[in-house]
TrEMBL record:
Source lineage: Bacteria, Bacillati, Bacillota, Bacilli, Lactobacillales
Residue ranges of every copy of the Phospholipid/glycerol acyltransferase domain listed in the record: 35-145
Recorded GO MF terms: 1-acylglycerol-3-phosphate O-acyltransferase activity
InterPro entries per UniProt: Plipid/glycerol_acylTrfase
Biological process, per Gene Ontology: phosphatidic acid biosynthetic process
Keywords: Acyltransferase, Transferase
TM ranges: none
UniProt name for this protein: 1-acyl-sn-glycerol-3-phosphate acyltransferase
Organism this protein belongs to: Ruoffia halotolerans
Length: 208
């Protein structure tokens, strides 16, 4: 058992004890084939919830490169399948790493297309990685407990897994086609949120 599996085993049961098992719909849309997991991002728990939902397949995440300035994180995060990326302008090396995770290591690639918890706008990039990797994109909407009170009073995390946005060999993946795919991800997030709760609204907090 590697460090990723060991820590996920522990964290999963802590979540189960204090918050309960996440409510998940659309599990059938997550096949055994590795994919690009494109998810909403609303709480620091989101990567943990996603890792729980997609197991036994491991998931690797892109994370902002500034986290890796800390020596402890720089040592620990790669062992947890986390690798750095510049949010504003991902480097070719980061993109190649994302493709390698799926095509060579057989892991899902976790991406938060909004870039952070402080935005709801889907930014470009996810579709471009699909073009490079030739993998399907699976959109996922998360409605996590937003604070300690909600967590410990067992307001369960809700998860909706959407139908895959399939890689299309017939497409040239032009700039306009890439934009359309990113737009489809945003539309999927809205649809999945309403599927979980028609009245749900996420208002990002201001960045500290």
């Amino acid at each position: 058992m590697n460090l990723y599996s060991f820590l996920l085993f522990i964290v999963k049961y802590i979540v189960y004890i204090f918050n309960g098992k996440p409510y998940v719909v659309g599990q059938e849309n997550l096949s055994k084939d590795v994919a690009i997991i494109a998810s909403t991002h609303r709480h620091w728990l989101d990567p943990i919830i996603l890792a729980m939902v997609v197991e036994p397949t491991e998931i690797a995440f892109m994370a902002k490169d500034t986290l890796f300035k800390n020596k402890i994180f720089r040592y620990l995060l790669p062992k947890l399948n986390v690798f750095p990326v510049k949010r504003e302008k991902p480097s070719p090396k980061s993109l190649r790493r994302g493709v390698e995770v799926m095509n060579e290591e057989n892991k899902h690639l976790g991406i938060f297309p909004t870039g952070s918890r402080y935005s709801t706008e889907v930014k470009g990039g996810t579709a471009f990685i699909q073009r490079l990797s030739k993998k399907d994109i699976v959109p996922i909407a998360l409605q996590p407990p937003m604070n300690a009170k909600e967590f410990f009073f067992r307001k369960k995390a809700k998860v909706a897994i959407g139908e895959p946005i399939s890689f299309d060999d017939s497409k040239k993946y032009t700039r306009e086609e890439l934009k359309q795919i990113d737009l489809a991800i945003a539309e999927a997030f809205d649809k999945l949120d309403k599927q979980l709760d028609p009245d749900y609204e996420y208002i990002p907090s201001k960045k500290d």
